[in-house]
Specification:
Blueprint: H1 5-23, E1 48-50, E2 54-57, H2 60-71, H3 76-90, E3 100-107, E4 112-118, E5 132-133, E6 136-137, H4 140-144, H5 155-166, H6 176-184, E7 186-187, H7 190-198, H8 206-212, E8 225-226, H9 229-241, H10 244-247, H11 250-260, H12 271-276, E9 280-282, E10 285-289, E11 292-296, H13 303-314, H14 327-347, H15 358-362, H16 364-371, E12 405-412, E13 418-426, E14 434-435, E15 438-439, E16 452-453, E17 456-457, E18 475-478, E19 484-489, H17 496-508, H18 514-519, E20 523-525, E21 530-533, H19 542-547, E22 552-555, E23 562-567, E24 570-575, E25 582-585
Parallel strand pairs: 21-22
Antiparallel strand pairs: 1-24, 2-12, 2-25, 3-4, 3-13, 4-9, 5-6, 7-8, 10-11, 11-18, 12-13, 14-15, 16-17, 18-19, 19-23, 20-21, 23-24
Length: 586
Amino acid sequence: MIYNAARWIQRRCLPALLGLLLAVPLQAQTDRPAQPEPESGRSEKTLARAQHYMVAAAHPLAVDAGLQMLAAGGSAVDAAIAVQLVLALVEPHASGLGGGAFLLHYDTQRRAVRAYDGRETAPAAATPELFMREGRAMSFRDAVTGGRAVGTPGVPRLLEIAHREHGKLPWARLFEPAITLAEQGFAVTPRLHTLLNRDTAMAGEAAARDYFFNSDGSPRAVGSTLRNPALAATLRALAAQGADAFYRGDIARDIAAAVRNHSRNPGTLSEHDLAAYTVREVEPLCAPYRNWRVCGMPPSSSGGIAVLQMLGMLASHDLKTLRPDSVQAAHLISEAGRLAFADRNRWVGDDRFVDVPIRGLLDPGYLATRARLIQPDRSLGRAEAGMPPGAKIAMADDRHEETGGTSHIAVVDAAGNAVSMTTTIETFFGSRLMVRGFLLNNQLTDFNFNPVEDGRPVANAVAPGKRPRSSMAPKLVFDAAGRLHLVVGSPGGSQIINYVARTLIGTLDWGLDIQSAIALPHAGSRNGPTELERGTAAEQLAAALRGLGHEVQITDMTSGLHGIQRSADGWQGGADPRREGVARGR
């Protein structure tokens, strides 16, 4: 029997913890992540309600494009494609044609979930030493800008395949809103302006600099109109010719030339790499959590495994008896997070290249054993990876972390079909290379820079054709009757795992509506410090958590959660107050 830490803390530790919280002054925290998420202001959001269909995404114009498709009788996939194409224009720092994505689709008629891996791949000429110089790993700053880190984009082919299998409207129709906006222009938002103002790498990349900045070097002003005729032309080509217009011909030649001919940091991406790119249809990972069934992505994403591991380890604790803002909740969720991240960093990579013990990592007996390591009155500090059933080769620990130029799209259509898609160009503005109106990714920096640690290979080392490990965690949740209950996901680099897990706990355990769950202050661990969201009530937990042995770091945690939840009369939608997205429906 697994010890119920939550009840023990309530009866025995809570008075002491509260006393400690009152007695110990909060220490000033100045440490921030190496790649901090810039703030652009918090704007409280209200719960959206709809009877028939709903879209939640990172920009109102993108949501409007998706709603246009649904109003015209389109499917959830049709709407998601229209949303992504507009995001490529209005949220260029996060996703677009030059990036990759993971897509979960639910077919309500067949009651089936399908998963599509549109992650970028390493070029055929890439080597394990791609980010090594004279035997030492390059700095992230030296690796990210230019051609070296550009992987073969997956988004255009992913959208085409999803439409071929699940679309209803004509392919070209889905491009119309984005083409119109690219030609007529859109207003620069505060977030885009803030990110541009903080970027120091764009100055050396002529195409991006000329598009995003004024002649005096200042970023385009908030509210100014930004037009992108080059992107409009690219979208017209894809609308007329399909994804082959991107992966073969003039566009492919221009992409390869921009990467290979970069003056300071050339890469190896070729026209052949583009022509050979394929989307993987993979088996979704689904596991029970209390009375729910939670589905996510398998590798090359680690997010599906890690979130399900966290839920599996927490299932023995009666979380509904805890307040969302309590020390106990933060402690338990953080401890589950550090155990899941320890396994992630040891075992998970592209499963075509390394033997990922997926079943063993999600085995109930294994998770019960891991859960017993969670102590009610003391943090693990740094957790060690376990030995899941079926594991064959002990890989080295990989502590490499991702950054967060990513977005999430949630859609439910009038028939009840759904899409949960997380899409990315890796860091903000990707590689800063702009080709034909869109930015190219720097996704290869999601690989571990050093292919060997402590004499052993790492699961996430670079290899030709390999997909870098991701933490993206699009989720679909079903109730005990098998009905779709929840569609959710987030950007945020490796913090995505904790963001999504906490939102699931908020809705499934604490009974919060999706907007309230998304707005919860963040607290969690990636097997390092326990991170508390700056400027929120989570900061007040710092002293008590230190009393339990946690190393605490107070930091900006600008998630971009978007979600849709079934209600008694239709659907409810939520958008993250930390960003500019909205949820709307009819």
